[in-house]
Amino acid sequence: MVLKELQNIFHNELDAIYGQHEVNSLFYLCTEHYLNVPRIQLTLEPELAITKPETETFFKALEHLKQQKPIQYLLGETEFFGLPFTVNENVLIPRPETEELVDLIIRDVASRSVQSSLKILDIGTGSGCIAISLAKNLPNAEFYALDVSPEALKVAKQNSELNKVDINFIEANILELVENSSLWEDVALRQKGSFFDIIVSNPPYVRNLEKQEIKPNVLDNEPHLALFVEDDNPLIFYKAITEFAIKNLKPKGQLYFEINQYLGEDTMALLTDAEFEAVELLKDLNGNDRMLKGTRI
Predict the structure, then answer these.
(1) DSSP state, 35?
(2) CA atoms within 13 A on the CB side of 268
(3) Is the domain 82-296 a CATH 3.40.50.150 member?
(4) What do you get for the CA distance between the two ends of the chain, in Å?
(5) In DSSP terms, which residues pair with 256 in a beta bridge?
(6) Predicted structure pTM score
(7) Residue 145: strand pairing partners
(8) What is the Cβ-side half-sphere exposure of residue 281, based on CA atoms within 13 angstroms?
(9) Are 8 and 57 in contact (CB under 8 A)?
């Protein structure tokens, strides 16, 4: 089959779901992944044809896309902060907003007079995208990444190997670590110390009442464990991580959060009430309250 004909079939089947521009992007991702054929080659060779087995692969992908399975899960890969990442249904697909958080931390560290020997902890690491992207850009720092899900940690470890960075992975529940400090003391002993220069987290923060805003491809495929919190206690993870940071950040250590855009002021109050200083609520490129940072007194 000629690839251009196949592209027309994708549009006929998917435009009503995704829109024409997005369908083009999905199709080109498939040609690059399955055929190693870049977009420009399709323009230069409009009659480029593929084999029957290759065509069948595209039709299987088309069926998954009609069911709104995320293309990143379908291909098993995505890009974040210019780096390749393996992803599957056990981890969230990294978002552009999280890239802004990584960039903020890198810029803040670059502005310091001392950059070496930093110890950085990522809580709720998922695919490892935050810790790994930071590690690629801050090669002199020491990195730790914590998650409650062994399946997520397996993916994160694969990604650390893929990107050739050293991360100390910890399987633990941050809520339990805060409730029982002896649990963390045991982990800290095994991980050679517990005091950090930076703690960063993008924890679950979507309230159940906000589910109607979530697209089906996310709601029906991405892990709810990493997405949702109860409406009556939406800041449960922020409270726990802030309490943990008070005990485990070095003096003048910094805490960074990605946050629910609707709860910016409430989340900011957690840090100010905990007597963090230089607390800043920052907007993402879309103008939404998305990042929060503070310094331990």
Answers:
(1) I
(2) 15
(3) yes
(4) 65
(5) 200, 293
(6) 0.93
(7) 122, 169
(8) 17
(9) no
Alpha-carbon 287 to chain mean position? 19
Decide: residue 162, CB within 10 A, 0-12 exposed, 13-18 middle, 19+ buried: middle
pLDDT tens sequence for the chain (297 residues): 999 999 999 999 999 999 999 999 999 999 999 999 999 998 899 899 999 999 999 999 999 999 999 999 999 999 999 999 999 999 999 999 999 999 999 999 998 866 568 999 999 999 999 999 999 999 999 999 999 999 999 999 999 999 999 999 999 999 999 988 788 777 765 665 558 999 999 999 999 999 999 988 999 999 999 999 999 999 999 999 999 999 999 999 999 999 999 999 999 999 999 989 999 999 999 999 999 999 999
Question: Whose CA is closest to 205, among 65, 47, 92, 44?
Answer: 92
Residues in the chain: 297
Q: How far apart are CA 193 and CA 120, in angstroms?
A: 12
Token reading at 32: 């690059």
Could you write out the DSSP letters of every residue in 226-269?
GTEE-TT-TTHHHHHHHHHHHHHEEEEEEEEEE--GGGHHHHHH
**The amino acid at 254:** Q
- Delimit the domains of the chain by residue range: 3-67, 82-296
**Residue 204 vs residues 64, 121, 196, 228, 230: alpha-carbon distances, Å:** 27, 17, 22, 5, 10
132, β-bridge pairs = none
